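Something for you to look into today, if you have time. Just paste the record in under my message, thanks.
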Amino acid sequence: MSRYVAAIDQGTTSTRCILFDQQGVPVFAHQLEHQQIYSQPGWVEHDPLEIWARTQDVVKGALEKAKANAGEIAAIGVTNQRETTVVWDKNTGQPYHPALVWQDTRTDAICARLAQDGGQDRFRLKAGLPLATYFSGPKLMWLLDNVSGLRAAADKGDALFGNIDTWLIWNLTGGPNGGAHVTDGSNASRTMLMNLDTVAWDADILKAMNIPPQMLPEIRPSSDPNGYDLTTKTGPFGGEIIISGDLGDQQAALYGQTCFAAGEAKNTYGTGCFMLLNTGNAPIQSASGLLTTFAYQIGGEKPVYALEGSIAITGALVQWLRDNLNLIDNSAEIETLAASVPDNGGVYFVPAFSGLFAPYWRSDARGVIVGLTRHSNKGHLARAALEATAYQTREVLDAMRKDSGVALTALKVDGGMVHDNLLMQFQADALGVPVIRPKVAETTALGAAYAAGLAVGFWAGQEGLRANWGLDHEWQPSMAAEEREAGYRRWLKAVERTFDWIEA
């Protein structure tokens, strides 16, 4: 009898396998980190084989903790760090190059060259995205231009491309021995190669980027009753299980937060920060620096779209304070250090380490710390780092209000940083609306589980999923409006100091 749905949550810094029960509660989990490779300034890479090995280990670990076998798993959902780009040999399973991570900025010159014809928004009407180093298409261009023998292999049909979801599903379903080369619309929309209206690879964009179409995976629904016609064959699950869910991590969090209606929004606090607003069955083009993205597709239903505000560095800033400055020994200490001072002491920290994402899209920006005096200490720096997350979220929310005309009355939050009570209270103060944390904060994995479980009847429908959602904590804004706006004005002034640091 099936007791669980398994979610594989492959993130930027770690991989997890979580088993969810009928109530959407995570009952068993295993998690392992993987290496971050910084071979040159601006370059961020992962080892795809290490990620595949970690995936196998966390699946085995979760099953061992549950004392479960393949027959007790109803289905598998996969969710993943988006935009991180992998190319591999379909005959051997060997990657041609380390994966280029979404944070990697080496494609800046490629994006500038593409923008010479039509500007930064050259592909926005079709793909919903500005030309930026963030997305997979330019990364694939770089690999084809710089990896010896890759273009010839691609032309021959031997080289496959995918985001991490595609890489893992291909391996889980047999790899070189008949592995399925598939993705879903949420991941495909992050390549800049998919047409949002047709939910298909766009021939004109492929031609402009000189990308062979045979490299690309088949685009399938995010929750597929056919299970992608996929089952695990050999590997960590120890038996045949349907893989029936696939969602990029932020779209999975939107689904896990049960934001099924147009106008509902969530914000995920992880390595970066990502706010998504459900806009219904039609893509809405942004005039305020947001991304138009594919949210999810359930079976044969119409696709659902979203507006997204993507922030590159939030939780990663805490890790930077830990690993690069040794300011703290572990990430959890940031809250205690920040609470050692009553305010930021006039210090503002804009972490534009890889440029600025939404709503600016400035690859020439770099990080700054401003407002330092002899009074400043490490507590002020820690507090400024946390406040940077809240202020960047405020900028994205303001842009969403302009584009959608919807004034949010509350913000649902999830991800690792939502357990920092100081940050969450400041987030409510900075926005002037309540901030709501659900009982299951790991909604990225939950969304992937929901997509997989719906496809096989483990859950009956979306209303049943809504019934699973429960409130854990709510923070009410307590800051005076004058103080809120004064702090925000100083933040915007600090952001301006990051511009034009990198010269052409």
About this structure: DSSP finds 16 helices and 22 strands in the chain. The longest strand covers residues 26-33.
